[in-house]
């Protein structure tokens, strides 16, 4: 059996390992942390990703751990007016999953690992860090350090799903092209329930300085928790009580500092790797592209990379003469989606939320309202936001 090593047991690495196992590879997944990382990051799973995870066999577990969120809302913070609501229910007939699923990325990774362990026990090596690799024409040799000490492994292919700071990408010397936003994002977690005032499970609130994304996550089961993502102004002490009080004041009449359980700050980048592979070593997920979290696309598009790459590696194993072409196609196809859909949409999503002048804000709100009110435009909008459109266009381009 052809051996493949995957680095990183995040949502992408675990999907990658599972997809490769399903394709008949001998897979080892290395994760440097002793347990699956559970920090509060991605929580929205888009319909095509649910279909892919169902095909891999972890979908039912993930569905059982998530909250269905067919509708999402745009609201104006100043007037508290609901500007528009968009309905993934319009995707009925296009996908078996006409909703987004709110499910923490940690549970996606966990569900994948549970499915991997049923399929091939011992594949996941926690607490084991990949410390370096070299490659030649026939394979890749990597070194790891973990509970069994220093080890050397020889595989046919290596996939770095090792996150935005990817040691794999750096070792390959691949440029990470793009920019870093000046402000960081402040993520607050609260048990305060927002459904009472007409919010939905997913919400985007427009404001020039205090815009926010507001969404519910299942946590340990009902009643769940809410996460809010605010801009963290440059130069301010953005984890301080004072800053947090200013951000939450007025969003909900009775939301206070005492309701905030966790506060986290994230640097936000918009970057895409210049190539998604070099020889026999590949990048997938955040190691290949990072973006702001507005729209819920980063983890999703990373999982789509993993599925695409598993298909290419299986085809290269079966038709070795085509390997170079297949690997180049992986970069072209997935880099194209990262640039043209994920980067474009997330940059646009942030601009819309923070529209600075009254004219720009009015234009953003008019556009949101007009699109939601026109059934054809509304449907086209959710096809795009759910990543279905991008995947279909890629599919027809590669078949055509
Ligand atoms: C606040 C916030 C909200 C977000 N919301 C969404 C959302 O709703 N929807 C969405 O699609 N995306 C969202 N994202 C983006 C999403 O979190 C990332 O795209 C996702 O985590 C990428 O997964 P990954 O598996 O590629 O990388 P990671 O989750 O970063 O996993 C990388 C793993 O590699 C391991 N690793 C690194 N180096 C080594 C090594 N040398 N050896 C062994 N292991 C190693 C790390 O320990 C880690 O476990 C959000 C991000 C943030 C910050």
Number of domains: 2
Q: What would you call the shape?
A: globular
Provide a count of the helices: 11
Which CATH architecture of the largest domain would you pick? Answer: 3-Layer(bba) Sandwich
Compounds present? flavin-adenine dinucleotide
CATH class of the largest domain: Alpha Beta
Oligomer: single chain
Largest sheet: 7 strands, mixed
Hey, roughly how much beta strand do the residues contain?
A: 25-35%
Helix content: 25-40%
Q: What is the end-to-end distance?
A: 32 Å
CATH topology of the largest domain: FAD/NAD(P)-binding domain
Strand order of the largest sheet: 6-5-15-16-17-14-18
Detail the poorly predicted runs. Answer: none
CATH superfamily of the largest domain: FAD/NAD(P)-binding domain
Radius of gyration: 21 Å
- Which class best fits the helix and strand makeup? alpha+beta
Mean pLDDT: 96
Number of strands: 22
Description:
By secondary structure, the chain is α+β, with helices and mostly antiparallel strands. It has two domains: 3-66 and 103-179 and 270-352, 3-Layer(bba) Sandwich (FAD/NAD(P)-binding domain), CATH 3.50.50; 71-95 and 182-267 and 355-400, D-Amino Acid Oxidase, subunit A, domain 2 (D-Amino Acid Oxidase, Chain A, domain 2). It is built from eleven helices and 22 strands. A hairpin with a 4-residue loop joins strand 9 and strand 10. Helix 1 packs parallel to helix 7 (298-318) and helix 2 packs across helix 3 (59-65). Residues 7-13, 30-33, 37, 41-44, 105, 129-130, 161-163, 167, 187, 229, 266, 285-286, 293, 296-300, 302 line the site of flavin-adenine dinucleotide.
């Amino acid at each position: 059996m052809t051996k493949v090593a995957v680095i990183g047991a995040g949502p992408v690495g675990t999907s990658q390992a599972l997809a490769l196992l399903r394709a008949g590879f001998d897979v080892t997944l290395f994760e440097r942390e002793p347990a699956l990382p559970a920090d509060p990051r991605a929580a929205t799973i888009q319909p095509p990703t649910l279909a892919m995870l169902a095909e891999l066999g972890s979908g039912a577990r993930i569905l059982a751990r998530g909250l269905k969120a067919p509708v999402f809302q745009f609201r104006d913070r100043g007037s508290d007016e609901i500007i528009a609501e968009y309905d993934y229910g319009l995707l009925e007939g296009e996908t078996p999953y006409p909703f987004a699923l709110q499910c923490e990325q940690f549970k996606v990774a966990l569900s994948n690992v549970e499915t991997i362990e049923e399929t091939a026990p011992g594949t996941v090596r926690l607490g084991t860090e990949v410390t370096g690799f070299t490659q030649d024409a026939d394979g890749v040799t990597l070194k790891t350090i973990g509970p069994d000490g220093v080890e050397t492994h020889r595989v046919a292919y290596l996939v770095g799903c090792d996150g935005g700071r990817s040691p794999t990408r750096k070792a390959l010397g691949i440029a990470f092209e793009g920019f870093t936003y000046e402000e960081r994002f402040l993520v607050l977690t609260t048990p305060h329930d927002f459904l009472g005032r007409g919010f939905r499970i997913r919400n985007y609130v427009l404001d020039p300085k205090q815009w926010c994304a507001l969404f519910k996550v299942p946590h340990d089961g009902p009643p769940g928790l809410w996460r809010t993502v605010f801009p963290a102004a440059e130069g301010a002490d953005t984890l301080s009580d004072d800053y947090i009080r200013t951000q939450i004041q007025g969003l909900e009449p009775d939301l206070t500092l005492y309701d905030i359980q966790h506060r986290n700050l994230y640097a936000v980048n918009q970057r895409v790797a210049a190539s998604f592979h070099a020889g026999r070593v590949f990048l997938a997920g955040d190691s290949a592209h990072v973006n702001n979290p507005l729209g819920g696309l980063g983890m999703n598009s990373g999982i789509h990379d993993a599925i695409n790459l598993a298909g290419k590696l299986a085809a290269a194993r079966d038709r070795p003469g085509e390997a170079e072409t297949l690997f180049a196609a992986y970069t072209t196809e997935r880099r194209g989606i990262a640039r043209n859909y994920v980067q474009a949409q997330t940059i646009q999503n942030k601009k819309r939320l923070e529209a600075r002048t009254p004219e720009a804000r009015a234009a953003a709100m008019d556009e949101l309202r007009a699109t939601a009110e026109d059934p054809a435009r509304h449907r086209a909008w959710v096809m795009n936001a759910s990543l279905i459109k991008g995947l279909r266009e890629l599919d027809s381009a590669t078949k055509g």
